[in-house]
Amino acid sequence: MTDITLLIGNTLADIDPDMIIYRDKQENGAYETPCYLIQRLPVTIGSSIGHHEHRMYTYDLVYMPAEDSRKKLSDIDLKSELLMEKFKLIQPNFARLWHRSLNIVDDVLHFQFDIYVQDHVSDDGPKMNNNLIYEGGLLNGNR
């Protein structure tokens, strides 16, 4: 199974190498800012013919600027432009980002996006394998 959150973190580290990236919430909000936090939101799963699942992962990439910065909003604007320009594909060629949106809430940038993944699902159920016992004849008779 692929760790999509790790792939997102690695791709983000390539785009913005000097930033701290968290994948877990810290106790009492003890983040060393400026930093990113990767949060996975609900996942939608759909099935198709041929043992495939279509999964849509939704992520919220949170950027928290430095607490003591007087230029929080300009810092957020720069990170917004960086993410819009550079963060379109999860490497190494894993998936494209869809429905990207940016929102600022309480001086924190929220960059939300969807990732579509098609996965092959193995079928471990019983198989017939031509092991049927057939008794012929009319109404199971000997005629």
What does this structure look like?
- The chain has one domain (4-140): Phage tail protein-like (STM4215-like).
- The mean pLDDT is 88.
- The longest helix has 15 residues, at 72-86.
- It is elongated, with a radius of gyration of 25 Å.
- The protein has a six-stranded mixed β-sheet with strand order 1-2-3-6-5-4.
- With 143 residues, the protein is an alpha+beta fold.
- The protein is 19% helix and 39% strand.
- It is built from two helices and six strands, in the order H-E-E-E-H-E-E-E.
- It has helices at 4-15, 72-86, and strands at residues 20-22, 35-48, 52-64, 89-90, 95-105, 108-120.
Write the layout of secondary structure elements.
Layout: H1 4-15, E1 20-22, E2 35-48, E3 52-64, H2 72-86, E4 89-90, E5 95-105, E6 108-120
Parallel strand pairs: 1-2
Antiparallel strand pairs: 2-3, 3-6, 4-5, 5-6
Helical segment tally?
2
Task: Assign the CATH architecture.
Answer: 2-Layer Sandwich
Lateral arrangement of strands in the main beta sheet: 1-2-3-6-5-4
Number of domains: 1
CATH topology-level fold name: STM4215-like
Short description:
It is built from 2 helices and 6 strands, in the order H-E-E-E-H-E-E-E. The protein has 143 residues and is of the alpha+beta class.
Index terms:
143 residues, alpha+beta, STM4215-like, Phage_tail_terminator
